Every structure is written in C-alpha cells, then in structure tokens.
Amino acid sequence: MNSFLRFISFSLAAAVVAIGTAPHAHAERLKDLVSFQGVRDSPLIGYGLVVGLDGTGDQTMQTPFTTQSLTNMLGNLGITVNPANAGNMQLKNVAAVMVTGTLPPFARPGEAIDVTVSSMGNAKSLRGGTLLMAPLKGADGQVYAMAQGNIVVGGAGASANGSKVQVNQLAVGRISGGALVERAVPNAITQQGGTMQMELREMDFDTTQRIVAAVNNQFGMGTAMALDGRTIQLRAPDNAGEQVQFMAQLQNIDVKPAQAAAKVILNARTGSIVMNQMVTLQNCAVAHGNLSVVINTKTAVSQPGPFSNGQTVASQQSNIQLKQDNGALKMITGGANLADVVKALNALGATPADLISILQSMKAASALRADLEVI
C-alpha cells in the first residue's frame, strides 16, 4: 500500500513534523547512532591562581585559601613569607580558581586543549587575568595536562557610586589552547580475541538488529553480533591500520533507525512542551479552570481630635478577593498522529503552563499514549 508524507507545522512549544499515514524514518549514518567502546573523552580538573586582575580579585579575609595558595607558590619559587604577616596580605589582584577541561581520545603529549577557568572565591571579575601554571588531573589522580595563559572573559561590567551594570558572567573565562597534554590516556579499542564493541547512544532492540544486518551485509555474515539492546560486538582486523580503515567504513554505513518510543518532554521551569511524532491521543473530556487570589493592603491612619491628648494610630487593612474562572467540560477528539494531537490541545486554549497539568492528568487517565518526562 502506497504511503505519502505530509509536513504540517504547528506552534505548541516547537515546530513539529507530522506524517499523514505511517511515519517513516530517514536513513542515518552509523556515526550518528553509535560510539565505539574505549573511544571516549576524559574530564580533567585542577586548582590554580589567577593574577593581574584590576582590583577585582578575592577578598582574602573571606577566602583564606587564596592567601595560603599564594604563600605556597612563593615558597616553591624560593620566596619566604612570614606566616605572621600572611594573614595581613591584601591580594586584590589575585583570585583562586578551578580549571576544567576535557582530554579528547587519542590525545598525545604536546597537544593543546581548551580549558575553562571559574572563580571559586568572591572575585568580582577575571577579566584581564593570567592563569598561572595549574596541573590538571584525571579521575585516577594523575596529572595529564598543564594549564596556563591569558583568560578571555565574554562578559563586561562597570560600577560607580553604588550603581552597577553587568552583561554576562564575569567570574568565568576560557583559555583557547590553554593546556598542553603531558600524558596520553590509553584507549583500548580491541578486546581479547580481536573483537571490538559498538554502543548505541539510545537503547533500542529494533535499531540494534538493523545495524547488525547492515554491517553483516557490508562485511559478511558473522562480522557483527548483538549482545543486548545497546551493545554490538564486532569481529575486527588484527592490524592496527586495518582497524582504522574498518572503523571508518563502519561509520559511513547508512542505517534506518526504528521509530522512537512516544515521549512528551515537559520543562517545568520554562513551561515548554516538546513531543515526538509517535504521540497519540484517545478520546477524553477535559475541564480546566484558573484560580487567582488578589490581596490589596492599604494603610489607614486614625487621627485624634484637637486637644484630646490622643495619639495618631496607623493600621493595615487588607482586602482579599478570590476569583475562579469557569472551566467548561470540553470533548477532546483522539488523534492517531501528531497533527491531530496538537490540534486537539490547541483547541483547549490553555497556556503551556496549564497544558503541563492537563497532559499529566491525561496520562493518569490513560488518554495520552506517551511517556511523560519532566525536566
């Protein structure tokens, strides 16, 4: 039976695509669906000092670790600071910071990576500062990179006579290529027996079987075998150069993924609602009313009469109004595709914030055929 494709745009919380009959997924490269086990980024973290600030550094009375760090650093450089005077130092141009970065897979010593510098004290701004040499450690406690350089801050601000204007964040900056890799992380791609494994970014048994069939069709039966709904085991070449060529060919295989499970994402902070094309709706009736409470408070002054020796008394008088809009019971016609679902929800005339409560109630009544996820 022939099928046809219709693109319909509705404004609910984002533009959505609906399909007239059965939805069809487009073929995607395997590179966008899977990742190879052992090929991963490694987070790095370190502690350091930023100097050269224009009087916007830490207040050392409230951040004693800044003074302690500077004393230790000067001691390593051969400069002795009297401990009795260390607490009296006013370091307005110095700030203690945390330095974070990501070590990419197969990074080699000498390669430069970007780092982010974040104030951990009460520094007002890191603009114009220079990060002193800070070791970056991995999860195992070993040093994998050394960071140093001038910080670029994307924000700007000014203050005078108690007034302050600020654009973006001034306590966080970035150093492009600010860390040099000192140690490589071993990446074990192949396992014992000359095999490697691929992992789907999203678990799906149907998509896993389609990938296995596509790989075996390209390289021969027995090349790929599904271990579970996410992991696929591959029979890889023994030679390292052939393994790279094999992985490059794998990534360019086109696979048509299976349809995702019906899901509705609710953002409780912004009131945003996003749903995929698999969401369906059953016939149901919805009544939704708004309740508002308004409190007006006025100050009433009682003035005593002349020569009465009375006192002026001020009292607070509050007027409370309770208002509830009538919510008529409306019939919602079920829809077999996303276009019908959006049309039915728009017919309610409710705001996205109200729709969050309505969708949760529809789910509880088994009228909404989708998983609700609140973020």
From TrEMBL:
- Cellular-component GO terms for this entry: bacterial-type flagellum basal body, distal rod, P ring; outer membrane-bounded periplasmic space
Signal as a keyword of this entry, yes or no, is yes
Q: Where in the cell is it found?
A: Bacterial flagellum basal body
Write out the GO MF terms: structural molecule activity
GO BP annotations listed: bacterial-type flagellum-dependent cell motility
Q: Which residues form the signal peptide?
A: 1-27
- Specify the superkingdom: Bacteria
**A Pfam family matched in the record:** FlgI
UniProt entry tagged with the keyword Heme:
no
The record ties this protein, via InterPro entries, to:
Flag_FlgI (IPR001782)
Q: Which UniProt keywords apply?
A: Bacterial flagellum, Cell projection, Cilium, Flagellum, Signal
Family from the record: Belongs to the FlgI family.
Record note on quaternary structure: The basal body constitutes a major portion of the flagellar organelle and consists of four rings (L,P,S, and M) mounted on a central rod.
Please give the function described in this protein's UniProt entry: Assembles around the rod to form the L-ring and probably protects the motor/basal body from shearing forces during rotation.
Name of the protein in its database record: Flagellar P-ring protein
Q: Which organism is it from?
A: Candidatus Burkholderia verschuerenii
Task: Please state the gene responsible for encoding this protein.
Answer: flgI
